Amino acid sequence: MEEPQTPIPIDNMAEESETTIPDDESSYSTVTPESLNDDTKPIIVDESDFQGPVIDFYKNKNILMTGATGFVGKAILWKLIQALRQEIGSIYILVRSGSIKRSKIGKPEERLRNEIFNNKAFLILRRMMGKSTFDSIVKNKIIPIAGDIISPDLSMTEFDREKITENVNVVIHCAATLNYNERLDLALETNTLGTLRMMDLADECKHMEAFVHMSLAYTDPNIPDGHIQERVYPMKVGDPEELLTEIVDLELQDIPKMTQRILAYYPNTYTFTKSLTEHLIMKRVDLNRIEEAQGGKAQWPVAIVRATQVGAGAFEPLPGWVDGVTGANGAIFLMGKGIQALQPDMGELLADIVPVDYLVRTILGSAAFMTLPGYRFLLPYNEVLADGDDTDSIIVPNIQYFPYIYQVSASGFNRTTWCSAYNAVRSYWHRNTKLVLPSAEEYFVPNRSLFKAKFFMKYHLPQSISSVTSAISNVGGGGGKNAASSDANATNRTIEVASRVAESVQPFLRHRWIFDHQNVQQMEKDMSNDTQFSLGEYKYIDWETYMINFAFGVHAYVSQSPPAGLRNITVPAGWACALYLQPGSTAHSIIDKQIESVIFSVSDIQKRTDRMLQELIASLEKPGQELKDKKKMEEWVNDFDASLDDWCHDDSDILKDTKKMTHLGHWVNRSDSHEEHIRIEVLNDKRVGQSIRQIIETSGVPQKTVVGESLKILQRMKERTQLPYIWSAGAFLNTLFKRLFSSLRINELDIAKLKEKIQEKNVVYVPVSKTIIDQLLVWYICLRYKLPVPAIVCDEALALLGPISDILRISGAYFVRRDLASRSPLNTAVAAAYTEVLLKEHGALSMVVERARSRTGRLQTAYHDGLINMVIDGTLGKNQSPSPPHSPQPSTPTQKLSPLPTPTGSFSSLSVKKETVFVPVNITYEKIPELRTLIDQVLDQKPRSLTINSTFLRPSATLADRAATKENGIIEQGKYGRAFIGFGKPISVRDTVKEASLPVNTNKRLSTIAVRDEDTIADFVVRKIQRGQHEAAVVSPVSLVAATLLFGRVTSGITLGKINKHVTWLREEISERGISIDWQHDEDVATIVSYSLNLLDARNNVTMDGKRVTEHTIIRVVEHADNVMDLSYMASQLIEIFLPEALFAVVYLSGTVKKMTKKELYAHFTFLVRLFKHEFIYPWSREEKFNTLLEWFVRKNLLLKNEEGLYTKVVTIENNEAEYTRVCLLASFVYPTLDAYWITSCSLSALRDLPYMPRKIVPVLSQWIAAHLITGRRTVYREVLSTEASQNAVDNFLAIGFIDAVHPKTKLSPDAQILLLELGVTTNEDLVMVSSRNIEANESATDVHESENILLNLADIASLCHEIEKYRFVTDNVNLRSNAQVFDKCQNQIRSILRADQSYATQHGMNLDKDEDQMIQLVYSLKAASSTPILSDDGSGKHSRRVSQAYNLKSS
């Protein structure tokens, strides 16, 4: 199976940016280029965490290490540096030198740099400790010693040998041959004689305190099942010393015969030599004891540490970190390749895997707690136990056993089986790649005689390790001539090595051994208070997470050329993934189960679900298209009905256990009379009654008719779901979200706090409105985590969207007409009454406060349609009649109203007024299905026709089209990346209403938009909700990369090194603000950037110089409007977080700042805040935020305050490029919006020649002007083509009094109105005209703060345009002077399209006055310009609505 394709060749990015070092022999301690960590701040640590007996032992101790370039050796060195930091003594690393005989392995210092300190574990440690601290330790404390343990004198110079013998206190010997089937004499030289030589060297050391030998727990497969003692077992092949002498004296031709003799008892030479070494250590210790007893040199402590299969790090150096294919790494690597690494009947056996960090702590701890043995000790040879004897009985009290033996195995942990381990590995590869591996049931089958061949043919996998190794050995030696063949050859070599490692331990894995570990247990007690070395956290290891991390580590660190941007799928501590729950979690068996059908097979159900998923996802990506395909719609309806039918007739009885379904509210026990009760309650609502009376009084319509109309409205509106439908929706959404997202993450503490705070309360969830599925995501999370599951309040428009509407209905949605202009008072009353009844009866609702989905990805201003008021009224409960209503007084002498139905006792609970809380919800998407549609709307374009010729497609095709695979259009799983759900603090309705009534909060100027009197309290509530949404945000690093890419446009591109720098800095700023960001400490910036570029479709949206990607590679955004808007949408989250900083940065960089007072600075800041009040949400106090920012800029030495209180801009690009660039980066977040407002103000120059024009046409005119300004290089921001920003600009210009809106019928003749209708402008849409510049209607002159003087002193729209110009980004003074005349040039440009030989009105035979005629001509010209057919490459005329094509805008 192929691994996922990466969009850009960044395979070597890490090599160039974060994992390579300068090739400087004189400074091997320099680990990374200067550019990497200049801006990276070390992690601040608590000194109390670095105290304990082990740290005290190693302080200033000098250590000699062997095997430091190996897996365990690297981990030991990492731990020593991390735990001891500057208090570490000298660490001498014995390493083979490549300077002899032209060896290619390199000199010792080069090997340390290339093989150790360039390892990701050490790079991350360097970042965490700080560059200077880490480099100082490496340079001064880590000392390479050239040597070789196979040489009798260790090949060390006299100088080095003397240095070691004079200084070393501890020897940690990990070196061994990695070849399990090494030739006997060579294995003996390394594993046995090498160890004895190291002991000889230790004997020479004058200050020797401990010697630790790394051994093997798996040596003799003939030991019977049961307890393995902390003892040395006899060698049945012969006496150890005699064997050593015999093998050393062998001639070369006699070695095979001796090998055959040994292999009769041991599976390979590696295990034999390891066992022999332990015996010889015992002999050596026994001789030293005799010497000491005779008054000679005292025996120094010796520890033998045995491990079973060493696996990836559980916590350190990084979760899942591995190096090479030793230990268990080989088996896990093979599993990930689909190779049978374990025998079929081993599934339920113990997976005896030891995390390398656990082993490292044991190794280092053993030296710390050993004491001098003296000469009165027992050698730890094994003892034969009688049946029934406990292993503790062999321990003789007060008797010292020496050497110390530590057995490190999974016996000390909570256990897991190979089957569970394989399931986790399979889960990783399934979720993070396209690789499909067999299930555990298929992988581990006791009887495979007939099944085996079929199974491996089905999955196209090798049948066994032996088949792999034989296949590899038969591969021809042609040699790869390209990168692909080179990678394939390297992969084959890795598979071969891994296969041999896995095969070598096969004889041991079947045994049911229990490794005694009393010495390790005692060490665990001794180290219990040592934070850095405690073993307690490993006792109850989460094996599911560990094995997934293990699989990731193998994928990232062992596999050849892993995908760029590869990230792990495990969630950080405190977080959970709602889609893939941990084993043992409260998984909802109903959501996760496979439905049982009485009609359809499991295969049929799976195919049906796949069809439904494809259809629904297509409806999200290309809305409206599914309604045109009647066959597809018919297929959807049939599948949907069949699915519901299956759930309604499920025979498993799982839906009958309703005791655990209290979070489902009234859907659990919905009685037959429920509908009648709802009708009665709604009709008895005072608002409905009042509306009915009003209609009867004003129109004379019979009461029965009006009541009937009320019931029709209710019938269209209400939700109609039931319990089986709820679980059907939950199961389908679970499958849907797994298909859309790779992960759906939520903070577990948020859930716990929320459950606590909403007990005995009604709940209204208010998610941000970004996509159609926002509320379904919240609904699903509530169902998954047993929060009150809400009825979803939707706009009526969502009832007509095909598949998604069907899912909304069965999820409990009810549909309200949100458009105030088209909603009748009776409709409003019924909606309010039904909302109140549902809130009280069901207890949970979900609604959005925005008018529609955000087309920019940012929080939007609220749309006051009365929904919030309905909840407030429902909570305060003043509209339900507690008793049968009396007949109202007749409106006329001849007409009486009949009494309405009376509610029955079953609704008596409604009289109890429960508190209601709003729960703000923020959803962060890395990518959304509807992005293409939203971008089309922002650019005011029609969706691209499905039949359009491919030559018309923009450089990056639609997201929907690009995402489909070649396999029948099946949607790639998880292609929209990760999604994050953040819950804000619940907001009490009653408390907030009281707070809103306080005098300090009644000023409507606190709102960013105009608010009606009846919505004042609701607006206060909404602002509090949106503040909660803002605070609940989780930042995706994709937004950081998108914003940085857009920033690079100003300089025609940005290097990859600078992207890394900016992204790192932004991350640190976000973290300092206490905002959650999806970037773990073990993830480097190169990985994050690569991952983000993948999601941003970098192959199509950016260009890169050169074939090889390095730090200096320049990346440029493809300057096409659609591409830019894609990136702008993804960067929008960052704008919300840094908005105040961005506004202040714009002020700082503007020409207005030279020397000014705090008041003047505040006035400029206020001008921008007020200018964008319809564009952005401000969940902060303007004055407080300004003071904070001013202090921040002063603290960073960007502003200097003199004695007179004046502030001076200090930093420029010449004197501090780094800080100046950061300010520019912040300002770039709002520069495109600023330009859009500037261009909109320029387009309003038309009002100098026209007394009025349609409000609807202003964004189109602005787009037309923008196209010309882009062509003329007056702006570099293609975001100005967005009609969204220009519409918001018009709204704000109206609000602050630069233009006025009037109704067309008051200004236009009937003929002009008819022509406008023909051109698509209705007579209900306002005209805009020049204003007399009055202050906002809701403000008086005395209310205006002096900080707003800039805005109020502007005379007209032209002066506003020139004022905005002062804040725009300009590259030079020439452009500044030219731009000052743009307003007048735009007016001339507009005049040019008003001139026509024969106007549009004249062509239609209508004689209008000049003003009307020119206005109609303007509308016609703009419509015609944006509808111009574009010639494709083949010369055929096609109607393309792409903005950049319509205005001939290509990348410039």
Q: Describe it for me?
A:
With 1452 residues, the chain is α/β, with parallel strands linked by helices. The protein is 46% helix and 9% strand. It is built from 57 helices and 33 strands. Strands 12, 13, 14, 15, 16, 17, 18, 19 and 20 form a 9-stranded mixed β-sheet that branches. The chain has a 7-stranded parallel β-sheet with strand order 3-2-1-4-5-7-10, with helices on both faces. Strand 32 and strand 33 (1437-1438) form a beta hairpin. Helix 47 crosses helix 48. The longest helix has 29 residues, at 1121-1149. It is elongated, with a radius of gyration of 37 Å. Mean pLDDT is 81; it is low at 1-38, 450-454, 468-480, 883-895, 903-912, 943-970, 1336-1343 and 1428-1452.
Topology:
Layout lengths: L12 H5 L16 H4 L15 H6 L4 E4 L4 H14 L6 E5 L12 H10 L2 H10 L1 H11 E5 L11 H10 L2 E4 L10 H21 L5 E7 L9 E3 L11 H9 L6 H9 L5 H25 L8 E6 L1 E3 L17 H8 L16 E3 H14 L34 E5 L9 H15 L7 H4 L7 H9 L5 H9 L9 H27 L3 E3 L2 H9 L16 H16 L16 E3 L11 H4 L9 H20 L3 H4 L1 H19 L25 H10 L2 H14 L3 H15 L5 H18 L2 E5 H10 L4 E6 L6 H11 L6 E5 L7 H8 L2 E4 L8 H18 L1 E3 L20 H10 L39 E10 L5 H8 L20 H5 L14 E6 L3 E2 H8 L19 H16 L2 E2 L1 H11 L6 E2 H17 L3 E2 L7 H11 L2 H4 E3 L9 E4 L3 H29 L5 E2 L1 H14 L10 H14 L3 E3 L5 E3 L7 H11 L3 H13 L8 E3 L2 H15 L11 H13 L3 E4 L7 H9 ...
Helix pairs in contact: 4-14, 6-7, 9-12, 13-19, 13-21, 15-21, 18-19, 23-25, 25-29, 26-33, 27-28, 27-33, 28-33, 29-31, 33-34, 35-43, 37-38, 39-40, 39-41, 39-43, 43-46, 47-48, 47-49, 47-52, 48-49, 48-56
